[in-house]
Amino acid sequence: xxxxxxxxxxxxxxxxxxxxxxxxxxxxxxxxxxxxxxxxxxxxxxxxxxxxxxxxxxxxxxxxxxxxxxxxxxxxxxxxxxxxxxxxxxxxxxxxxxxxxxxxxxxxxxxxxxxxxxxxxxxxxxxxxxxxxxxxxxxxxxxxxxxxxxxxxxxxxxxxxxxxxxxxxxxxxxxxxxxxxxxxxxxxxxxxxxxxxxxxxxxxxxxxxxxxxxxxxxxxxxxxxxxxxxxxxxxxxxxxxxxxxxxxxxxxxxxxxxxxxxxxxxxxxxxxxxxxxxxxxxxxxxxxxxxxxxxxxxxxxxxxxxxxxxxxxxxxxxxxxxxxxxxxxxxxxxxxxxxxxxxxxxxxxxxxxxxxxxxxxxxxxxxxxxxxxxxxxxxxxxxxxxxxxxxxxxxxxxxxxxxxxxx
Amino acid sequence: xxxxxxxxxxxxxxxxxxxxxxxxxxxxxxxxxxxxxxxxxxxxxxxxxxxxxxxxxxxxxxxxxxxxxxxxxxxxxxxxxxxxxxxxxxxxxxxxxxxxxxxxxxxxxxxxxxxxxxxxxxxxxxxxxxxxxxxxxxxxxxxxxxxxxxxxxxxxxxxxxxxxxxxxxxxxxxxxxxxxxxxxxxxxxxxxxxxxxxxxxxxxxxxxxxxxxxxxxxxxxxxxxxxxxxxxxxxxxxxxxxxxxxxxxxxxxxxxxxxxxxxxxxxxxxxxxxxxxxxxxxxxxxxxxxxxxxxxxxxxxxxxxxxxxxxxxxxxxxxxxxxxxxxxxxxxxxxxxxxxxxxxxxxxxxxxxxxxxxxxxxxxxxxxxxxxxxxxxxxxxxxxxxxxxxxxxxxxxxxxxxxxxxx
Lengths: 407, 407
Prior knowledge:
Two copies of one chain form a homodimer.
Chain A: E1 28-29, H1 42-56, H2 73-87, E2 96-99, H3 101-113, E3 119-123, H4 128-136, E4 140-144, E5 146-147, E6 150-151, H5 153-165, E7 172-175, H6 189-202, E8 205-209, E9 234-239, E10 251-254, H7 257-267, H8 273-313, E11 327-331, H9 338-347, E12 350-351, E13 353-354, E14 368-372, H10 378-396, E15 401-402, E16 405-406
Parallel strand pairs in A: 1-12, 3-4, 3-7, 7-8, 8-9
Antiparallel strand pairs in A: 2-10, 5-6, 9-10, 11-14, 13-14, 15-16
Helix pairs in contact in A: 1-8, 2-8, 3-4, 3-7, 8-10
């Protein structure tokens, strides 16, 4: 096949920018939301496949199996039970939509709620994927102040009033209350209560993204906002990417039927049934054992990463100790431009997410970076951080000292 | 959860129309592209899952596994081999994009090539899903004449010249050359050659949808157009929905890298990896045995359907005998309005696709209907067709005689 026919001259206008051809992962792969390979429950998934296909394999012969467009019925039953037990929720099977990753859930929310020129509130540092999707639709994204406890609710209330006064009613507040991405804060029950109230009173919806809520090491986490009284304006989003496997492309959202029905009309072909069936069967049997094992490994990796950062960056790297999740949000001295550092590091096989890409105002995170510790081995975390410190020193003179020895 | 918050008043404008809540399939389910439940290779899929997860299960921990955004590498390797062996093609792994069903493939083609007001040529009777997707984008769909051999190429050449003369260069010709949907014709090699030439000369792309090309009962089928010299303007589409299972949501398209790269940028999260891995492993080992078994069952069902139509509708039902595929396109006498008949039949548990929904000009297929014979049992085909004839008689007086006995 050759390119003799000029398809490109026939492309529609305004298409998204293309990326260079994929050429494999970096040697030290600290970006994105990749997970721990050793925690993929290979044998558990094989057993689940055998069980569920012998029980219901013939349903694969029909579009949407025997379950309709909301998704596999056993998957929705599992989710209803899990969300009740671990997030305090009371969603019925018909209030849950299975999606191809939480990315599709966010896309559907944006599609049915947002038009170009609309305004959405996000945490000042937030998930790049969510921000990019909104901006691609021409939505005006406004950052809200974070502190160590997550969203600063009092500041947000003032901000919302100012917006409303100036004639702008935001479509929704997008928040990651449990293990905030990238700062890892957990919003307290008190703040959740207040956030529900100040948005409800003003008629502003909340999109609560709880993709990381299964990965808190402290077991006494707060319930989801959707579980609380007065949460009729909340849409809840979750995913299997973080507590099972991102390549499966399985996510979900919880919302009233009127919202889900409109999303179904937008969703197109649907989400693969084999994944839904297998994961539902596996999780129904092994959710707790699996998640506990995964969390143990992640916690150990977090500790290795922190140790490596302290050893190699010393006081140059500032960060909080995350109570869960898969990443660390690090602040380097203001001399370091992490966008430049990311380019230099990638050339030497170290990939991380530069702060500006995770920030509504890129300048506000000019010296920040995000390191995902779930995917690399403990040895790769040690070696990669040492290498990153070396590259950073060569590029910026920081960190000036490593393991108490001047370079 | 209740609906106290009025999400609907906040919906974006111009969203697609919603459907009534799904309430299960009709008793006699002759619609859509559902497949034969008995042919789902349950044990084969279980074995493939065990093999592939033990070999590569850990790759699920990364987005797009170890394969990049075009799709699972083993899936693309299987497809390259299969398309070479059975469709005569020479596509490399990097010219194949795995999609969530052929529906997503068509959506991506439309997205990168079409703007509102553009023109696309389709066969006068064609796949509803493809037509609806184009019209939802504001594309002007023009029908091209079909005869028993598929597209009438000479008539199409005249039609294209007239369009070009009037200032309209169609973006592409969408065709289903092998087991045309819904008429079941197979385009000859000679016509494929001519179609390539008349479109290539005029600078018009071809979208060749070969979703049914694996299901021809006669083994000497023509190669795909993309396999032929001078096919640089062809995009090839395929799917596992028809020769394995529609609920898996696995399709693919073949195109030059420049086209695929733009599609990747539009595709979003990607297609589930477990499905890709399992199906690639299964097909690599058992494609021919599986497809041959499926084809045998489908051919038997076709024969049962034809027998039932002849017994119950007599000469009132006109149809060709399909050489493959999963449906029959039936013409009833002009007194019968199949849209009305479909409503009446559905109330009594018989679901079929009325012709107008499968026709660029709805009026041209006012008395046609499409029956998919893959999903119902042979008994359900017999009983459902008898019931349909009875309902049709009650509604329209047709067929006047059944099994040579006046009603």
